[in-house]
Design brief:
By secondary structure, the protein is mainly α. The protein has helices at residues 4-27, 35-43, 51-57, 61-80, 94-103, 106-119, 123-150, 176-191, 196-215, 221-240, 249-255.
Length: 257
């Protein structure tokens, strides 16, 4: 006959085995992983990153170079904006810079060219002035289109006191003054008989107009540089489309007396 103590030990041992089995079943609900399963799970690669994430994590050399140039452009433009306000380093020269600004504005050039065209009695002078008017109008249209496409805002240190602006003038790239100055400079050097000192003055005027745009805080450095290049190239378009009594007889008949 078994003793009460041995029966209690058997019950305790069976209860311990049941508790152990329940714990094992809770910890491993599925079949144990085999070595082959572990190798398969370890060899499975993570899903590839989306393409846009890869581009953000691995920026191209061109993107880094453009970002660096933009940062240098903004820094240099702010440092060179010494006439951006009355309290700037060269604030006392601001009135002179604004006079230069007016000298490169489109309205005085359009009005002056139109007046000269109306008062001219020479057919050769009318031909030159008519093509200058065509160049100025072409410059206005092209700069407005590029500004509308690029939509680069003007520098933050620019004061809103510009001379006669329109809606597209809230954008900065390219500089219309620089484009016009380079265009007019090249036009004058090719079609006006000027002494050497006057030719030098024309070139200096074009460069000073471009520099004044940065000093007044109107434009960044790259706006002015691109504007000068664009105006220089635009003159070649004007030469290619040169208006003459043979190519545009109706226009010359309109202005003949």
């Amino acid at each position: 006959m078994p003793s009460p103590r041995s029966s209690r030990e058997r019950r305790a041992g069976s209860g311990g085995r049941l508790e152990f089995l329940s714990l094992v079943s809770q910890r491993s609900p599925g079949p144990p992983d085999s070595p082959s399963r572990r190798r398969e799970s370890g060899s499975s690669a993570p899903p590839p990153l989306p393409e846009e994430d890869c581009m953000k994590l691995n920026p191209s050399f061109l993107g880094i170079a453009l970002s660096s140039l933009l940062a240098i452009d903004l820094w240099a433009s702010k440092r060179l904006g010494v006439c951006a306000g009355e309290g700037s380093a060269w604030g006392s020269a601001r009135p002179l810079m604004k006079v230069i600004e007016v000298s490169g504005h489109g309205i005085p050039w359009l009005l002056g060219t139109f007046y000269g065209l109306c008062q001219s009695d020479s057919s050769a002078a009318r031909e030159v002035l008519l093509n200058l008017l065509f160049a100025l109008l072409l410059d206005l249209v092209l700069v407005a289109v590029v500004k509308g496409l690029v939509r680069r805002r003007r520098p933050t240190h620019n004061k809103r006191d510009m001379f006669v602006t329109i809606s597209v003038d809230k954008y900065s790239f390219p500089s219309g003054h620089a484009t016009r100055a380079a265009l007019v400079c090249r036009f004058f050097l090719h079609h006006l008989v000027l002494a050497v000192p006057l030719r030098v003055l024309v070139v200096l005027w074009a460069l000073i107009v471009g520099v004044s745009r940065v000093m007044l805080g109107r434009h960044n450095v790259t706006d002015v540089l691109f504007g000068l290049l664009l105006g220089y190239a635009l003159y070649s378009v004007v030469e290619y489309c040169w208006l003459s009594p043979l190519s545009a007889p109706a226009l010359f008949a309109l202005w003949s007396h």
